[in-house]
Write a structure and sequence with these properties.
With 340 residues, this protein is of the alpha/beta class. The chain has two domains: 11-155, 3-Layer(aba) Sandwich (Rossmann fold); 160-338, Up-down Bundle (Dehydroquinate synthase-like, alpha domain), CATH 1.20.1090.10. It has helices spanning 22-28, 44-55, 71-83, 95-108, 152-155, 160-185, 193-207, 216-236, 245-255, 263-277, 290-294, 298-311, 324-338; strands at 11-14, 35-40, 60-64, 88-93, 112-116, 128-132, 137-141, 147-150. The longest helix is centred in the middle third of the chain and has 26 residues, at 160-185. The protein is elongated. It binds zinc ion. Zinc ion binds at residues 121-122, 169, 243, 247, 263, 267.
Length: 340
């Protein structure tokens, strides 16, 4: 399912979107884009786009706002891209808008620059887009952005919960890498040292901070950690370096509709338990017990484990090492230890 050509972002720039001169940035990178399709959300990102259009009168823009993140919409946008001879897609917004812009770029083979307004998962530069196919949210292989523009006056306004969700999707790399090792050892998968290295860099970029999320250096390192995680998956041509048992459990919890908490928050909350299963420990006090408490009902926990093991049929993780009863016993011991 993963796109075969390895692309890398050739442009990552800090900008002030209220006065940025896009042509100047393009020229700096020897790029020439003059027909741009901007995809945005409903309000905040749409306002940013309108200002961008107003301040860059030398470029032809077509703005598609209120992005619905559906395959149908992407098909319609494909027609716009070809009829208007668009040569750059600019996504401004959060995960859904950027995933749609990423998939549209993949389908049309038109360059894509991402302008995130909030970052709550590691999807910004990952080779995967999650888009609604009319029935469900579905993962599609996608090529990663050719460029990323970062306006920290906007990103600094992310809430504590939003940032924590993004952090959750990065710290989960720790248990994901242990699961990958396990799968390699059991002969189920092959290693990829470069992808592993990038995933480790991503973890180390944020592990040096405790909880000072408003620190400017933290926000910048956090965004780089998110980008590096995406690149790790891009090199591995798989989510393996960033997704292990904690993601399988989180996907099962989401499929069973057990919580409204965000994807990143759920995987972040489960990471410490999955590390415990590996005999390791990482307690991030920022995550509440809300997700772990969902596992306390034994019959529900079994339902979650069974579904988690099926969700990516061939993904070998620490969950495969234990019977359901052993996992239940481990959970109780883990909770007892955490409350000491
Ligand atoms: Zn994730």
């Amino acid at each position: 399912m993963f796109h075969q050509n390895i692309t890398l972002p050739i442009l990552i720039e800090k900008v002030n979107l209220s006065k940025v001169d896009l042509s100047e940035i393009f020229t700096q990178y020897n790029l020439c884009f003059n027909k741009i399709l901007i995809i945005t959300g409903k309000e905040h990102s749409y306002h940013i786009a309108k200002r961008l259009v107003k301040n860059n009168r030398n470029i032809n823009f077509h703005v598609h706002n209120n992005c619905q993140n559906t395959l149908d919409e992407i098909e319609k946008l494909r027609l716009i891209v070809s009829s208007l001879k668009i040569n750059l897609i600019l996504g401004i917004g959060g995960g859904k808008v950027l995933d749609s812009a990423k998939l549209l770029s993949t389908k049309t083979k038109i360059s894509y620059i991402a302008i995130p307004t909030l970052v709550t998962t590691d999807s910004l530069a990952s080779p995967i887009s999650i888009v609604n196919d009319g029935k469900n949210q579905k993962s599609f292989g996608a090529s990663i952005p050719n460029g990323i523009l970062l306006d920290y006056s906007i990103l600094n306004k992310m809430t504590h919960y939003q940032t924590l969700s993004g952090i959750g999707d990065i710290i989960s790399n720790q248990s994901a890498l242990l699961d990958w090792d396990l799968a390699i050892e059991a002969g189920h998968e092959k290693p990829n040292n470069f992808a592993r290295f990038l995933s480790e860099i991503s973890i180390s970029l944020i592990n040096k901070y405790s909880d000072d999320f408003k620190n400017q250096k933290f926000i910048e390192d956090f965004i780089y950690a998110i980008i590096t995680s995406g690149l790790a998956m891009n090199i591995a041509k798989s989510s393996r370096p960033c997704s292990g048992a904690e993601h399988l459990l989180a996907h099962a919890i989401s499929e069973l509709k057990l919580t409204d908490l965000s994807h990143g928050y759920v995987v972040g909350s489960l990471t410490d338990f999955c590390l415990y299963l590996h005999g390791k420990h990482y307690k991030n006090p920022q995550f509440s017990d809300a997700v772990i408490n969902l596992l306390l009902d034994t019959s529900r926990f079994i339902q979650i484990i069974d579904l988690a093991k099926k969700i990516r049929g061939n993904r070998y993780t620490i969950l495969n090492k234990f019977s359901n009863q052993e996992l239940i016993d481990k959970l109780h011991k883990y909770i007892k230890n955490s409350n000491k």
